[in-house]
Write a structure and sequence with these properties.
371 residues, binds manganese (II) ion, binds phosphoenolpyruvate, 4-stranded antiparallel beta sheet, alpha/beta, 12 helices, single chain
């Protein structure tokens, strides 16, 4: 059994959402609608599974979502006249509500309480603020171990590092690939930090998932739908980064692709968008946190490193992100930024990272959160 599987089992002891995998695979994509089957608060497990079967027998896909108060079943599929009545007649059903948002299971309509994702040492959501630090790329065992120890010493809860790198130029460093994954796994072994690393291609999903705690989908791949489906079929948590020119609806629908395959452990990462502004690498809209919290139950991560592209802008944006309610930060930190093989200009030193964690913690405390 891989480490990530073991961690996953532990996670399921404190589940917030569990999405049932179903057999209904080939829905016609014409007029898809979503309905929330709200079960009565005392509904039995038998009533809930009988209801899920009834949803499926009507040709809809059933996603069972356990909230703190009661269970709902999101029923998503082709629109038909009689569906609502057929669902309302089920035992233990309280009411049937339409899901108005274009995304269904990612929507706050189906689950008003926030989703908390636990992946090893990393807890994201609710009143926990995750702090993921580490270099843009894994460059060597020494570099990564030094970074990992610094993240741990500063009070970080997750370790980042790219082994498969999406680079603008094919001549730039492409990452250490599986060797890099092994180094990340060693760093987890020594420090206990959960690993977050990017998967670039569908054919690498199983390999990367066997080493990491969180699969990162990069901005350039946010609309790679086959890749989204592939990570949706793993048992790994996923950090989905916003495409540099994606709208919020496109972002949430990309999350829906992952969840539609049965993986509910999705965190959304705002990492900045492309605008006319050239003083910063991207423009980082912190209002995304508040917007997304109104639309989805999924936790929100802010990446102030790619979001600004300048190390000196990162600490203040990190503090502001915690203040506005971000559930986690992902920050690039390199033992020697001037020697980094990628993104050194936006990477903090270990000292700056530690200082930033300290400042963020003060804000987290002030708003009743733990970091
Ligand atoms: C990264 O995290 O190093 C990265 C490439 O991020 P993004 O996909 O947001 O550009
Ligand atoms: Mn980077």
């Amino acid at each position: 059994m891989t480490i990530s599987k073991t961690l996953l089992e532990a996670d399921f002891k404190t589940p917030v959402v569990r999405v049932q995998k179903t057999v209904t695979k080939h829905l016609k994509k014409g007029s898809i609608e979503g309905m929330i089957v709200v079960m009565k608060s005392g509904a039995s497990a038998e009533e809930i599974s009988a209801m899920a079967l009834r949803v499926e027998s009507l040709g809809l896909k059933a996603h069972i979502i356990e909230g703190t108060e009661r269970t709902v079943i999101a029923a998503v599929g082709e629109k038909r006249e009689s569906t609502k009545e057929a669902l309302a007649a089920g035992a233990g059903v309280d009411e049937i509500l339409p899901i108005l948002a274009p995304y269904k299971i990612a929507s706050k309509e189906v689950k008003p309480d926030p989703t908390i994702i636990t992946a090893g040492s990393l807890v994201v959501g609710g009143n926990k603020v995750g702090m993921i630090g580490g270099p843009c790329s894994v460059e060597s065992e020494e570099q990564l171990m030094e970074a990992a120890r610094a993240v741990k010493a500063a009070g970080g809860t997750g370790l980042r590092g790219g082994a498969f790198k999406p680079r603008t130029s094919p001549y730039s460093f492409q990452g250490m690939k599986e060797e890099g994954l092994k180094i990340l796994a060693n760093a987890r072994e020594e420090t206990g930090l959960a690993v977050v690393t990017e998967v670039l291609a569908t054919e690498d999903v199983d390999l990367v998932a066997s080493y990491t705690d969180v699969l990162q989908i990069g901005a350039r791949n946010m609309q790679n739908y086959r890749l989204l489906e592939a990570v949706g079929n793993t048992e790994c948590a996923v950090m989905l980064k916003r495409g540099a020119s994606a709208t919020m609806d496109e972002f949430l629908l990309a999350a829906e692709y992952i969840m539609n395959e049965g993986n509910a452990r999705v965190m959304l990462c705002e990492r900045g968008i492309r605008t006319f502004e050239s003083h910063t690498r991207f423009t980082l809209p912190l209002a995304s946190v508040t917007y997304l919290k109104n639309k989805t139950h999924l936790p929100i991560v802010i990446d102030p490193s790619h979001g600004t592209g300048h190390a000196y802008l990162v600490p203040d944006m990190a503090v502001a992100a915690v203040a506005i309610g971000a559930d986690a930060l992902i920050i690039e930190m390199h033992p020697r930024p001037e020697e980094a093989m990628s993104d050194g200009y936006q990477s903090l030193t270990p000292e700056q990272f530690e200082d930033t964690v300290g400042r963020c913690r003060v804000i987290a405390d002030a708003i009743g959160k733990q970091m």
